[in-house]
Amino acid sequence: MIWRVYLSGEIHSSWREEIILSAKEANLPIVFHSPIIDHQKSDAAGDVLGVENNSFWRDHKSSKINAIRTNSRIEMCDLVIICFSDKYKQWNAAFDAGYCAARNKPYITLHNESIIHPLKEVDAQAMAWTKTTAQIIEILIYITSEG
Amino acid sequence: MIWRVYLSGEIHSSWREEIILSAKEANLPIVFHSPIIDHQKSDAAGDVLGVENNSFWRDHKSSKINAIRTNSRIEMCDLVIICFSDKYKQWNAAFDAGYCAARNKPYITLHNESIIHPLKEVDAQAMAWTKTTAQIIEILIYITSEG
Amino acid sequence: MIWRVYLSGEIHSSWREEIILSAKEANLPIVFHSPIIDHQKSDAAGDVLGVENNSFWRDHKSSKINAIRTNSRIEMCDLVIICFSDKYKQWNAAFDAGYCAARNKPYITLHNESIIHPLKEVDAQAMAWTKTTAQIIEILIYITSEG
Amino acid sequence: MIWRVYLSGEIHSSWREEIILSAKEANLPIVFHSPIIDHQKSDAAGDVLGVENNSFWRDHKSSKINAIRTNSRIEMCDLVIICFSDKYKQWNAAFDAGYCAARNKPYITLHNESIIHPLKEVDAQAMAWTKTTAQIIEILIYITSEG
Amino acid sequence: MIWRVYLSGEIHSSWREEIILSAKEANLPIVFHSPIIDHQKSDAAGDVLGVENNSFWRDHKSSKINAIRTNSRIEMCDLVIICFSDKYKQWNAAFDAGYCAARNKPYITLHNESIIHPLKEVDAQAMAWTKTTAQIIEILIYITSEG
Amino acid sequence: MIWRVYLSGEIHSSWREEIILSAKEANLPIVFHSPIIDHQKSDAAGDVLGVENNSFWRDHKSSKINAIRTNSRIEMCDLVIICFSDKYKQWNAAFDAGYCAARNKPYITLHNESIIHPLKEVDAQAMAWTKTTAQIIEILIYITSEG
Amino acid sequence: MIWRVYLSGEIHSSWREEIILSAKEANLPIVFHSPIIDHQKSDAAGDVLGVENNSFWRDHKSSKINAIRTNSRIEMCDLVIICFSDKYKQWNAAFDAGYCAARNKPYITLHNESIIHPLKEVDAQAMAWTKTTAQIIEILIYITSEG
Amino acid sequence: MIWRVYLSGEIHSSWREEIILSAKEANLPIVFHSPIIDHQKSDAAGDVLGVENNSFWRDHKSSKINAIRTNSRIEMCDLVIICFSDKYKQWNAAFDAGYCAARNKPYITLHNESIIHPLKEVDAQAMAWTKTTAQIIEILIYITSEG
Predict the structure, then answer these.
(1) A 72-131 residues with CB below 8 A of B?
(2) Tens-digit pLDDT string for chain E (147 aa)
(3) CA dist B58 to A117, A120, E69, E144, F138, Å?
(4) Are C135 and C108 in contact (CB under 8 A)?
(5) Nearest chain G CA: its distance from H32 CA (Å)
(6) Which residues are H82's β-sheet partners?
(7) Separation of alpha carbons E144 and B82, rounded Å
């Protein structure tokens, strides 16, 4: 069985690369999917639809183009991993968590101890809270093992 | 027809009271529901289940008790209004928005211009973005009017 | 048992008033719901959210406010009646029909013979095609009668 | 990941061929599906079931045969692109849009500026409004790219 | 708690009246719903839509009008009772059973021993097989009693 | 695209073989599934679970084993074809039709003119009524053709 | 808002009465529902359908009659409370918990510390684990309070 | 067609190995999935997330990690087989059964006669009750055979 795992959230550190590399080294039967993590490219996703002077509408158009990718991938994945940093607002990451909760899609959070309290509702419906990518890898090894 | 409206999000200003009062003055056929907005009471919702030394588990228990209220009310409401301030993390508010989006439950956001960009994914699936409670009231008057 | 019936579509003739009046005269146990049929008011539904120079965004905002009403009412109704004229585009009426079909919500169309061919996909998933409001009333009398 | 894209709507211009050809040239990992676009063949889809003197029933039978194809393909696709011309009624295209909206199936519209107003409800629930097939291709390149 | 019970199937004997009368005498908190059981009236349900020379289309139109009633009532009932006689085809009754099974709507069958074998698939997904209306009443008394 | 088609209903004539053979000759991209059509084997499907003196329970056990096959296959198929003869009760075939209707699974009926009236509710929610396997093949050719 | 709470599980102690009485004294806006807790009456629920020599079939018939009650009530309740004792098998209580989990119906468990380990999967998807009815009452007071 | 079968429940005997081996010998087109059946490894599934002094939380974390595996596999399987022993509590097995029932996922139980009565609710919604793995194999041969 091939697992599909979606890596949502924080885009300013190398957590995705670490997980993908370690999973590869461990030969895990996992295909990973991610949002577009090039920040500028993501913000400009809707620019092809025409210039907007109003930044709200520029953001609106780009977010919807990105949503085509995000929703399709979340729906088809078996597990979602959502990373939060203590530096950014990352409301989109919390949004993805709520979306997963409502769809019965299991998700795991990745964040350090300093933001336990503001993330309590997000963690309450997660299948696990992790602090390191090493923990994520251990879990992926476990859940993808047979019997 | 009686409408049910859930007021999610920011708990440090009087936006809920303003909406409820204005709706009452306008005789709108709306029943409002809210989370427990007494911060300390909400954080302590799970304390009855036993003392926890680890703050993660204290938060975990309280969040789940609160989730019984939140999910029931979101499911039964016709519309959710979600308020974001520029001061707090409010990941629970973004979580509620994602939950609504996944359930086809219409929601309206309430926040000022300074946080348009970080809220772009949340706004992209909202039915409207408002900046003032006066705008909310206008919309409630409109949608509750008959033909 | 009280039935809820939603009257979707054409807004330039008196078909809604005819149905509502006849149903009242026949004492049918039906509550009717309608979109906002004042064309200007409907087009301006989103103006409270701020002026838009671009007509696309003005329409966008108003349509979403109207969608809060439409979707809520379609979901809660037992039957939807959708009227098409041969004069207008009425893509919103066909949109409502597709929405109903996907949700297993029964709908009846009301239109004259001249537009049978372009409405064939809409009629194919309808429970009935009617040409007059008198036929609608006969059907409402029948379905609301007990055993 | 292979994407499936359904091309719904207008059948009198070459927009489908343009998209399919460009996607092929760009080596996009997309399988396209379309309705039967030979107008006469589509109208005659139900003739094998027996001759009808009444044009309503002839249309009825053909529409239902076509609906087997349409619904199956919309359900299995990741994205639907719906093209409207300003010359035709195309209520079936708006019907497909309503069907997609009710199923949470993302769709993009393709039409020129002259019909923004009558399409406002259809566009309000679309993920994007495009005016050219070149814009469509840009979006397809973006959403099918990995991370 | 008021229960809603739908009485589907055979229309040539007095089983519905027996159940309704006994339930009334026992003061059971049940509202009963039934199809139109006047055979001629039911067959003519669609005649208001225009005369059909082809009996298939006459039946088609009447069946769809009746389906508006049937589906609405099955959806809103807590329990469906489906009666089969050994004299008639009653494919509509078996159709209702299949519909209930797919919707997780509990149903009870009522038929005598002579047709156990042809009804085996229908009975396999029923909550009970009864032979008399007296048994039905016993069950209704039991399930409507509190704790 | 490979289509999956389930062949439900009548087991005393060669309609399945005709369809499968013709589809093969026409090279249609279809995989067919069927119930166990060996009548005795099907009736004995549950005998491995232990002898029953009471014929009701023997039928009950076999029907449930068969239901594992039937429901799995109906769920995974794109189209169901249901054949009725005028000689048998075939309540299981009507049950499958009701199941399909409730799941939005398109189905086509196959039966001769003599049983139009008793099958009117079954036909009312079918996508087509056919009288011959040749008609079925024509439809399969049509729906499996690309654009 | 009136809440509906279903009390599932253990039937040999007075936990239900304690909760119902305390809720009444506290004037909580709650309607409680319970299974039939008279053990003999519950085991005999299907006897009206005819005598069975085989105890498996007697149990089978009674369980299905009880399932009509259980499933209807679980579906309509806002919260389920499930009590486990350390003395009995109570597989039906764990079955109800799994049913709730799959339906997104929030449930709270009530059991003492000695059975934490065997109940770990049941507790993992519960909204809270309680040890006393006093804790239950505190939670009910909290969740039924408005804002 | 390849079937997917999930083997839930009792972990102290060799029933899984017997089924898998026999299925292999009979060349059945079945892929089997199981929970982690190494008891200690399963109990420790969450230890990577950090040490817990409180056994409740240790169990909680491990159960949730295991639930990622269990729920994914149950959702993707065509059939679940659930084994109960008369020696253990196995509330997780009954929980899986309730989960299956609520999701319309067919399941078969495997247990001896001594526990018929406490398992009556679990068996009532099962597709079959078996006593030996030989019976399971017979059923698997039957359901995986074509027409």
Answers:
(1) 84, 88-103, 113, 115-125, 129
(2) 899 999 999 999 999 999 999 999 999 999 999 999 999 999 999 999 999 999 999 999 999 999 999 999 999 999 999 999 998 899 999 999 999 999 999 999 999 999 999 999 999 999 999 999 999 999 999 999 986
(3) 10, 9, 52, 41, 66
(4) no
(5) 22
(6) H8, H109
(7) 41
